Amino acid sequence: AKPRVVVIGGGAGGATAARYLAKDSAGGLDVTLIEANPIYTTCFFSNLYLGGFREFESLQHSYDGIAAGGVTVINDMATGVDRAAKTVTLAGGQTVPYDRLILSPGIDFRDGAVPGWSADEHADIMPHAYKAGPQTQLLKSMVESMPQGGTFAMIAPPNPYRCPPGPYERVSMVAHLLKQTNPTAKILVLDPKDNFSKRALFEEGWGRHYDGMIDWVGPEFGGGAVEVRPDTMEILVEGEVQKVDVCNVIPGQIAGKIAAIAGVTDDSGWAPVHPDSMKSRTDENVYVLGDSSAQGDMPKSGYSANSQAKVAAMSIRGELLGSKVFPAKYSNTCWSLIAPEDGVKVGASYEPTPEKIASVESFISATGEDAALRKVTYEESLGWYSGITADMFG
Ligand code: FAD
Question: Does any ligand 1 atom lie closer than 6 A to the CB of residue 128?
């Protein structure tokens, strides 16, 4: 029988890995992808949907192309992993055996991360919109129905979390929408971090495009110790109660639950991996990709997950089929849109050291860049979106 590779999670990491394993092994591997949702909605560019730059449908992708590429796609939730028996159990009752297991389940939210809020009870009132889909649509409809001059609050997450510039791109896109429909509205960002990704670029852009609309409150003024009362749409900052109209709670994060169930996470809540292969440090038959992995310097991004997936697929083909394994190289770029055609980016290339995946060379957009360059940067991001979704889904 052919060696069996099972992938849990058909997102940026898992979809890429499944597709490359099937494609590059020319039928030599039996590849199964287990994914809870029949349609994947990208978090990447979901902020552009909030800003009115993308249709919701343009974020959605089916698994038909992956299945056509020779992967067995199972739409079900993985509920258990027996690493001794090398099997995965599904909610539907099926047991799926593996020789190598790839986990790329994205993120889950840390219990109690924001006092007063839980994903199960309050995401309908104070959405996170940090897993794309109905949550993203809910947040947009809430912004659209805000009263004139109302307040949009965001509770930003502590490090590490998926997409470091994501909350700040979201603020920019919400500001863009409000500027047109509700120009006296206010945006209040409450942040537990002293600093954030591309801060100088965002603050410059906020001043230029949305002057006076956005108020960022760091930890020294209580931004890090916010309590929420979803039932009354109130937030408490340093003991003071404030009523808001929309509250986007982006809580502290951990690896997707199945990684902990599989027993490959540590006390941090993330899953440590070997930097040269993305193989779990706990089990040599398990790989962990993307947001769930603790690997070093790479940000938790779709670009990173896609890059890591190719390294893991190459390592697995080497182990199971004896194909050549080249030294691992990784890369990432995170683009953000601040206003129409005002795009910025940050990125790096990475190489493994024994301890971690280490940043080798990095770049970032500069403040004061002219509009033409910002437009080119934005256009680059459009090309990247088409490229990565084609790479993931075929
Ligand atoms: P995901 O892509 O989340 O995939 C995980 C999949 O696993 C999901 O489909 C889920 O349904 C499935 N799953 C989980 N558990 C199970 C289970 N037990 N059984 C079956 N299926 C399961 N990244 C960029 O590179 N560029 C950007 O511009 C960008 N913008 C972003 C903007 C926002 C607002 C957000 C929230 C994120 C953004 N990201 C961006 C980050 C990017 O979305 C993630 O880093 C990336 O999706 C991580 O890939 P992954 O494979 O780890 O997880």
Answer: no
